[in-house]
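Budget justification aside, the reviewers requested a transparent look at the raw inputs and outputs of the sequence design task funded under Objective 1. We therefore reproduce one unedited record. The lines immediately below are the structure tokens for a 279-residue chain.
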């Protein structure tokens, strides 16, 4: 009996529903520093899709029906409750789906290093340069291109193992420093560094901490960053395909040995690249 009533109620509920059937699947919780996918499916192709997440709102190129995915992420410092809004537009109607996503705390390992004091605190004369570098990098990572240049399955940039994972909380001579915003991958000097996905070169430069650096904009708020390169093989504004060489492994900037620092950013927030690399 109860089942029958429930079934009737469900039917009434569905009759009252909008015309187009729309399925959106988002996780209810993710760990801080983790990227995640939102899957959506609709029987009728919408004219537009908009996503609102972490104070950013952007349009997504429509690839439905059949289904498509949007890649989002939760920054290391975004612990707490966050609302995800997905808005779909057709000629006659629009539908909005909202989700409450809990960004959980996640324990990342600590690393304690003792270094000579002059290596820990940069000299006064480079403070301005460091601030300028930071601003340039932040602004490159903040570009939001509506087009999506990338395909799923990001490719590894070098074949080497991880020497320092994402999220590690570093302490230099007992003082906490910012958490590791990428992964360090082993590789001998000169190893070609390959683009993890197709994208446009939005920044190349030689920075105090990162040394020779390349940043790619993959579109849809996704960026990848390659640091400590011995050489840069691309110019700003050019497009590179997945697997194309952007530079070579080195130890420029603040590095104690040759390695690639790889960062992956979603809407300007660093996420763990290892979730996305196909290796
Ligand atoms: Zn690193």
């Amino acid at each position: 009996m109860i089942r029958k009533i429930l079934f009737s109620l469900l039917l009434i509920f569905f009759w009252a529903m909008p015309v187009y059937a729309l399925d959106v699947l988002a996780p209810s919780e993710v760990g801080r520093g983790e990227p995640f996918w939102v899957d959506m499916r609709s029987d009728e192709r919408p004219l537009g899709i908009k996503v609102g997440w972490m104070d950013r709102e952007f349009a997504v190129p429509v690839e439905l029906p059949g289904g498509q995915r949007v890649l989002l992420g939760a920054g290391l410092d975004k612990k707490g409750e966050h609302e995800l809004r997905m808005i779909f537009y057709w000629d006659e109607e629009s539908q909005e789906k909202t989700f409450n996503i809990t960004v959980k705390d996640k324990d990342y390992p600590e690393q304690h290093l003792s270094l000579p004091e002059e290596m820990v605190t940069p000299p006064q004369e480079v403070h301005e340069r460091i601030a300028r570098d930071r601003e340039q990098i932040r602004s490159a990572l903040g570009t939001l291109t509506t087009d999506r240049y990338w395909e799923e399955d990001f490719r590894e940039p070098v074949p080497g193992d991880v020497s320092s994972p994402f999220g590690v909380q570093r302490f230099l001579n007992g003082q906490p420093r910012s958490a590791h915003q990428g992964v360090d991958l082993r590789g001998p000097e000169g190893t070609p560094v390959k683009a993890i996905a197709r994208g446009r070169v939005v920044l190349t430069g030689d920075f105090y901490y990162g040394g020779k650096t390349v940043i790619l904009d993959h579109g849809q708020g996704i960026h990848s960053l390659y640091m400590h390169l011995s050489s840069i093989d691309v110019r700003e504004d050019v497009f590179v395909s997945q697997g194309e060489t952007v530079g070579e492994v080195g130890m420029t900037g603040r590095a104690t040995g040759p390695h690639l620092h790889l960062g992956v950013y979603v809407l300007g927030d660093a996420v763990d690249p290892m979730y996305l690399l196909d290796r």
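The chain is about 10% helix and 45% strand. The mean pLDDT is 91. Computational costs for records of this kind are itemized in the attached budget.
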